[in-house]
Amino acid sequence: MDGWQVMEQAAELARQGTAFALATVVWRQGPSSSQHGSRAIITAGGELHGWIGGACAEPAVIREAQQVISSGNAKLLLLGSPDQFASTAPAGVTIVPISCQSEGALEVYIEPVLPVPHLVVVGRSPMAQTLADLARALGWRADLIDGPDFTPADADARSLVVVATQGHNDEDVLERAVAAGPAYLGLVGSSKRGAAVLGYLADRGLSKTELGRVRVPVGLDLGSTTHREIAVAILAELVQLRAAGSLASKAAVPRTESVDPVCGMTVTAGPEGLPLERDGVTYYFCCAGCRQAFENEPAAYPSGS
Questions:
Q1: First to last CA, the chain
Q2: Are 137 and 235 spatial neighbours (Cβ–Cβ below 8 Å)?
Q3: Would 250 be classed as within a structural domain?
Q4: N- or C-end of the chain: fewer Cβ atoms within 10 A?
């Protein structure tokens, strides 16, 4: 996959609402196998698409990219042997030592590409319309759906759903919203009304875990009563929760890691880590050379003796 194909796939993932990181090589020191402008996509699950460097650079870039996705903050990485850079790296650059036999080095910029929030407002009141309009003004994707038309297929695990049917079949609509499993689910109504709706759904067999995810009353308590102010209070709560990182549908799944006993580099503890079992312990390596060295003389390395 070349650089332009990577960008095409990045655009498609963005349209699908998938979070990922885009890594770009901005500097290299030969004989690194990467080139200026080489790009790769790294998903939250640690899958890499494209080319960013060889076996030494790839695990480090994947690990750092997952942190970038989780934090939402870009990073500039300097990858090379520990004695190459000393204290010469500029401020703001993250130094990642790698023990690469080629003695090459890379500078990689990793930026997060996070999907805009998807807000589903269920209801036809002026407040529901105002809430959808305000969300769109923030650049969010917002759908306004009438209660009878709403189905679980209208939302997914990344969606934020606000049920604003205000007494028009609240129970049925909320039950359908629970089935969608959104990242956020709120019901517009008083505490008393909310308790009645949740009690009805409990009698219908919904679990405490499912009902415990429903926020009611919804929105920050601003002491306001107009429909516009209620919409602002709801959106303010969503913005606050998003800023705090509380609306993620699932956390990034980090790869299991191990330390190469020969060079000390952190590597992936999987098939790509060239596993070698010795005395009931599985060791992982950054490259075939380290694996061969360990296999020839394991006692020479403290963790293998």
A1: 42
A2: no
A3: no
A4: C
Of 241, 246, 122, the closest CA to residue 174 belongs to: 122
Domain shared by 263 and 238, yes or no? no
- Its pTM stands at 0.63
What 254-258 contacts at long range (C-beta under 8 Å, 24+ apart), as own/partner pairs, is 254/46, 254/63, 254/66, 255/46, 255/59, 255/62, 255/63, 255/66, 257/59, 257/63, 258/283, 258/284
Helix (H), strand (E) counts: the chain: 9, 15
- Pair 149, 178: CB distance under 8 Å: no
pLDDT tens by residue, 217-245: 999 988 867 999 999 999 999 999 988 87
**44-73 pLDDT, tens digit each:** 889 999 988 776 788 889 989 999 998 889
Same domain assignment for residues 122 and 239: yes
Q: Check if the beta carbon of residue 39 is closer than 8 Å to that of residue 7.
A: yes
In this structure, what token pair is assigned to residue 31? 């004989």
Which of 49, 82, 113 is the last residue in one of the domains?
113
66 is a domain residue? yes
Separation CA 23–CA 20 (nearest Å) = 10
List the domain range (segments joined by +) for residue 298. Answer: 257-304
- Number of structural domains, the chain? 3
